[in-house]
């Protein structure tokens, strides 16, 4: 990733990126770690000296590819950090499940259909207008889990697809029943 692409970090979610050590790396890394959606992403450095890489250590480079790149060394580094990337890509295991969801957002009441459920939130499909940050409370049931109510907020929205993501409120202890359900579903 070069400095001229760093602005994308505030608009798009990435799982990992490669930044050339030196030059504009500090500006790119400041954008990465300052981004709400990308601050935990895995960052690989490319080239540069040990001294240059150490200057960037405050930004948490996860690994550095030394130049000239050699296939066996690069593969070894990728393999060693693969789980970091996968963990960031799927912070929570998502279970595709479709169920009717009743939503209360302020004074508005409407319905949606779940797309995926995780212990941290869910994605939903609805024709209603919603916006990121909007607080809401949802009510739904899942196979063996009786109807549950949980508070949260809209974390992302794709209007063209009429889909949005909800993150459960960490202070709402009712979400723990969903976490237990997800864990038992994965064990069976």
Average pLDDT taken over every residue: 83
The separation of the N and C termini measures 42 Å
User: What portion of residues is helical?
Assistant: 25-40%
Strand order of the largest sheet: 5-6-7-10-9-8
Structural class: alpha+beta
Determine and state the CATH class of the largest domain.
Answer: Mainly Beta
Sheet having the most strands:
6 strands, antiparallel, barrel
- Per DSSP E runs of 2 or more residues, the count of β-strands stands at 10
CATH superfamily descriptor of the largest domain = predicted glycosyltransferase like domains
The helix count comes to: 4
Radius of gyration: 20 Å
Q: Might you state the CATH topology name of the largest domain?
A: Thrombin, subunit H
Topology pattern, helix = H, strand = E: EHEHEHEEEEEEEH
Count of separate structural domains: 2
Q: What would the principal axes of the Cα set say about the shape?
A: elongated
Put the structure in a nutshell.
By secondary structure, the protein is of the alpha+beta class.
Detailed description of the structure:
This protein has 188 residues and is an alpha+beta fold. The protein folds into two domains: 3-89, Rossmann fold (3-Layer(aba) Sandwich); 95-187, Beta Barrel (Thrombin, subunit H). The chain has four helices and ten strands. The mean pLDDT is 83.
